[in-house]
């Protein structure tokens, strides 16, 4: 119903009630809170073209397509994390539609944000069995948020930060859906998406980077959790999916020290730091500084939270 009203305003401008429904107002309900995602889920039909055939858009009931419904529900949860917890209206902060394609290519073992939409492979059934899992959906959507928050260049430390921040919000979306306290969370990214051919439980672990899988085909999960193990490589854009283990683990430690619900104070600190960063080439140390400023803003100078955050960064080898 809200959506119909919004469309009416969007197409007719100032409405008969004398109010002006500008962009800002479009995603706000009567009480002024952010409310409404604008989801558009497409079927890639196992082809490479994006976005593919539109199968379900905002307000449509389920048509019984499991992949489509997982993408739709997941996008809703991630929208709600950013809107309700951090006051952000969609990925760009201005209500942009959440466009996703499921069944992208055949046997495709990945999911990605392409700069304007999400795309999910089905996996080949051996290495991966699906990518439609909430922490993965949140990860891809967070890439959109990062892009629209000044960006982080996708190589070396700034690229690993980009990856880590995507993991953080992916994990927060999942913890929030499950209503978990910090100590109840498993801190896994992509739990259950690995196929029967792989010996492992998830794609990554923020609690214990390097332990998510150990396999003949994939090898040992290569993530470090301390700067001593920082990997300098030209693979993977400079190890962006590897060294992300370090800031991931700092976030995990901070959450554990603080306790409670991770998407609350710790999530707010990370979100605020991302909004304030303004440095696409940021290093881990730059990011740690920015999170310290954000924690100081939110919890107060000299607060216990800032002490705990400094301790978390120190434990992973980043002294600030
Ligand atoms: N799944 C990967 C990611 O979102 C895809 C990529 O490496 N671009 O990080
Ligand atoms: Zn990523």
TrEMBL record:
This is Neutral metalloproteinase. Extracellular zinc metalloprotease. SUPFAM superfamilies: Metalloproteases ('zincins'), catalytic domain. The keyword Hydrolase applies. The keyword Coiled coil does not apply. It is found in: Secreted. It holds the Pfam family Peptidase_M4_C. CDD domains: M4_TLP. It comes from the Bacteria. It comes from Paracoccus onchidii. Keywords: Hydrolase, Metal-binding, Metalloprotease, Protease, Secreted, Zinc. Its cofactor is Zn(2+). Residues 68-147 form the Peptidase M4 domain.
